[in-house]
Every structure is written in structure tokens, then in C-alpha cells.
Design goal:
Helix content: 10-25%
Mean pLDDT: 83
Strand order of the largest sheet: 4-3-2-1-9-8-7-6-5
Low-confidence stretches: 1-23
Order of helices and strands: HEEEEEEEEE
CATH superfamily: Avidin-like
Number of strands: 9
Number of domains: 1
Largest sheet: 9 strands, antiparallel
């Protein structure tokens, strides 16, 4: 009987530990809204965590995807950048934040008109 109780407790703690790790796993589709020139649009990123390697992509125009770059994930902290090109000009946005169960709270940093700017970034994980 004691043996059965010990096995049950071990299994329960393993499930709880796995659930806790999975709650902060950034793998999935994350969505947020962006406001620009008085218009709001939905943005998203798809992230994949394989061991300690983070990768992913963002959707683009005409069903294209842009891979994320310089991606990292450690202790619930995420960082990556996205470089796009418009009218022959490349621009990079850097994202960083803290991952919780279904939210990433952080900052987006970019350059506009030669000036560095940042905005808060709050993304929600899609079910």
C-alpha cells in the first residue's frame, strides 16, 4: 500500500512539474494589435522551442513568411528580431518580454525617421 502511495505521489509531482514548464513554453501562435497612422491591425508570430533553441516566423504580405532572427529564450525571458523590407529599405524590430501561461509582456524597439522608438508589447497565445 505504501508503495502505491509513493508511486502515485511521484507521478503527480512529475505531471505538475511538466505542466508548470509547459505553462511558460513559448511554442505556439501569439497575437497582438498594432496601431499605426490611426489604424489598428492584428499582428502575430509563430514560435517553436526545441530544447533551448527558439525559432519562428511572422506572416507577411501575399502569403509569405519572415523568419525571426537572433532568437533566445531562457528562464521565461524571450527575445527575437524581425527584419523586413519595404520599398527597398530594410527595417528591424526587436522584441523582448516575459512569457507567462498565455501572455508575453515586453517591449518592441525599432527605428523611425532615424530615431529609436519603443512600445509596450502584449501578445496573447492563441488556443
Amino acid at each position: 500500500m505504501k508503495w502505491l502511495l509513493a508511486v502515485t505521489l511521484c507521478l503527480a509531482s512529475s505531471v505538475l512539474a511538466a505542466s508548470a514548464w509547459g505553462a511558460e513554453n513559448p511554442t505556439g501562435v501569439w497575437k497582438w494589435t498594432v496601431e499605426r497612422n490611426g489604424q489598428t491591425r492584428e499582428a502575430s508570430v509563430t514560435l517553436f522551442l526545441d530544447g533551448d533553441k527558439l525559432s519562428g516566423h511572422v506572416p507577411g504580405r501575399n502569403n509569405t513568411v519572415t523568419p525571426i532572427e537572433d532568437a533566445s529564450y531562457k528562464d521565461g525571458e524571450i527575445a527575437f528580431s524581425v527584419t523586413r523590407e519595404r520599398n527597398g529599405v530594410k527595417f528591424t524590430t526587436k522584441y523582448s518580454g516575459k512569457v507567462t501561461t498565455d501572455t508575453i509582456n515586453g517591449k518592441m524597439e525599432f527605428e523611425r525617421d532615424g530615431k529609436k522608438e519603443s512600445r509596450d508589447w502584449v501578445a496573447k497565445k492563441s488556443p
